[in-house]
């Protein structure tokens, strides 16, 4: 399956593209709901995030999102041929011991 390119974060005309994304922008970028990112953050799963500014707004680095997606692809046997159990070399079983 060809690699799917990720869409660029949405930005309205006149705004500067930033390396930091809000939860909503990160969710749009990943094709997820903001709720999913909040749940993953609470469970300490998903892409790395941090709090920024005096109000502690949750933010994501764009480069961290891309790295996280690459990690997910490598951990999936359908995307990583090295993990595909159908292409793994056959392992010989050890002979069964018989009781006397």
TrEMBL record:
Domain Helix-turn-helix: 20-72
Biased composition (Basic and acidic residues): 90-100
Top-level taxon of origin: Bacteria
Region spans: Disordered: 73-100
UniProt-recorded name of the protein: Helix-turn-helix transcriptional regulator
């Amino acid at each position: 399956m060809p690699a799917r390119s990720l869409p660029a974060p949405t930005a309205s005309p006149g705004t500067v593209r930033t390396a930091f994304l809000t939860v909503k922008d990160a969710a749009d970028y990943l094709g997820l709901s903001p709720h999913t990112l909040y749940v993953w953050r609470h469970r300490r799963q998903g892409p790395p995030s941090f709090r920024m500014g005096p109000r502690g707004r949750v933010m994501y680095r764009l480069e961290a999102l891309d790295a996280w997606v690459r990690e997910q692809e490598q951990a999936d046997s359908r995307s990583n041929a090295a993990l595909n159990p159908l292409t793994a070399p056959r392992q010989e079983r050890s002979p069964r011991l018989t009781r006397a």
